[in-house]
Amino acid sequence: MDLPSEKPHEQLSFQQKVWITCSITALFVIFIWFFIATFNVFLLILAGALIALFFHGFAYLIQNRLHLTHKVSLLISIISTFVIIGLLFWFMGARIQAQVTELAKTLPATINTAKQQLSTTSLGQKLLEKTSSEDVYNKGYAFVSKFFNSTFGVFTDTYIVLFLGLFFTGAPKTYIEGFLQLIPKRAKKGTRDTISKVGFTLTKWLKGQVFSMVIVAILKGVALAVLGIPMATALALIAGILNFIPNFGPLISMFPAILIALTLGINKAILVTVVYLVIQIFDGNVITPSIQRKLINMPAALIIIAQLFMGYFAGVWGLILATPIVAILIVVVQEVYVKKINE
């Protein structure tokens, strides 16, 4: 007598499971769609977080050396960073601005001169034939336009990233604890440990990158000045900044230096190319701190693949932030999956 009454209950329970499964699937699809649609915004948030990590890493260095409180060290970190940047622009800004302006004005003439120099050799003629067609120009222009297309505009993006970085620097625990409120209680400790490991990894990576940028800018500036290349200061600054982007940054910074060197002759261009390559090899094997390499295993091929995909889908921000994203994903996979299956 009781069996017929149990079937509707079982059938209703099955329907509820179906609705729950469909709802979860729909929410997951919506979340993925929203994430893809707003991916560039997440990149700006990540860039702001990196700035906050830089300030806190600098503050810990000051704290360890001067034995001050962390709040005072953090304040000194922020102020000293802006003061150093301001002094650099004060003493070198006029010279760099003049050289960058000259570089922009003379670029068309420099390209024409470079073409004339290349046309004097058989290899240069073949290179010009393959790169001077209208189809290649259109494809290159379309790629560059898409690549440098930022989320809200270059200056707006910079403004957003800077202020996000300052907000994250001022109250990191507020944002971390707010995020942890969304995590189930049983997973909060693991999530907190993972966030801490991600922060530690990115801080070490940032230290290595900043140190590498400074050394590369100095070495290339001195080398270009010794070779007598015009606008050596501006080219060194470009090389230092672009060195933040592994693999592709140094290659991009090499092109304006080679173009300007070509105006002085093929031999000068070859010398500049050799100097840039030697410094980059030295940077990759000596300058970059060994602690950064041992900190996390990031295969070079994986970084290049990530840069290609991120650069294509998210432009310049994707290329800049591809490496820290790979580092974050590796740490998360290790903490959430690899450690659990090995326990």
From TrEMBL:
Coiled coil: none annotated. Belongs to the autoinducer-2 exporter (AI-2E) (TC 2.A.86) family. PANTHER family: TRANSMEMBRANE PROTEIN, TRANSPORT PROTEIN YDBI-RELATED. It is a multi-pass membrane protein. Pfam families: AI-2E_transport. GO terms for biological process: transmembrane transport. It is found in: Membrane. This is AI-2E family transporter. The chain crosses the membrane at residues 18-36, 42-62, 74-93, 147-168, 210-242, 254-279, 300-333. It comes from the Bacteria. Keywords: Membrane, Transmembrane, Transmembrane helix. InterPro entries: AI-2E-like (IPR002549). Signal peptide: none annotated. One of its GO terms (cellular component) is membrane.
